Amino acid sequence: MVHELAEYERAPEQCHLTAEQLQTALFGPQPALFGHVGVDADGEPVGFALWFLNFSTWEGVHGIYLEDLYVRPEARGTGLGLRLLATLAEICVERGYPRLEWWVLNWNPAREFYHAIGAAAMDEWVPYRLTGPALRDLALRGSVQPAAER
Predict the structure, then answer these.
(1) 61 exposed, middle or buried (CB, 10 Å; 0-12, 13-18, 19+)?
(2) CB-based contacts of 136: which residues, under 8 Å, 6+ apart?
(3) Per-residue pLDDT of the chain (150 residues; tens, 9 = 90+)
(4) In a 3-state reduction of DSSP, which class is residue 54?
(5) 5, 21, 50, 97 — which has fewest CB within 10 A?
(6) Whether 8 is catalytic
(7) Closest CA to 100 of 71, 67, 58
């Protein structure tokens, strides 16, 4: 379904995830990725949410960052997306996390759904990303050792 999401987001050539990589990320010795799968009445997977913990230095606690939420076209409008988000909200409340955050493409019609459940667009923040040569160039400039390695 991750590849279906990449197709939906008009970037299938950018998705290189393998089943083995996902298996390791979710179930390896030190998993840092978590997920939920939604199934239809026949038990067939029709949606998923993949997430990880982030940390707010201002709040001083973790939160959840939703990396991907996807519901197959035939299951859209059934409430599955709402149930997946509600599950993550429940985890936040149970653990005392004050934030559930995610990004969404500006053209995605799901934005109306997100607004309807009370989510607010964070349009004052501009996302940045380092990849490829720029990432390698910065890495070559050296680094500061993390406190745990001092």
Answers:
(1) middle
(2) none
(3) 999 999 999 999 999 999 999 999 999 999 999 999 999 999 999 999 999 999 999 999 999 999 999 999 999 999 999 999 999 999 999 999 999 999 999 999 999 999 999 999 999 999 999 999 999 999 999 877 776 665
(4) strand
(5) 21
(6) no
(7) 67
In the 8-state DSSP scheme, what is residue 125?
Answer: -
Please report where in the chains the tokens 């970037």 appear, as a residue.
11
Catalytic residue among 8, 70, 97, 114: 114
Task: Please say whether the beta carbons of 31 and 16 come within 8 A.
Answer: no
C-alpha span between 83 and 13 (Å, rounded): 30
Residue type, position 86, single letter: A
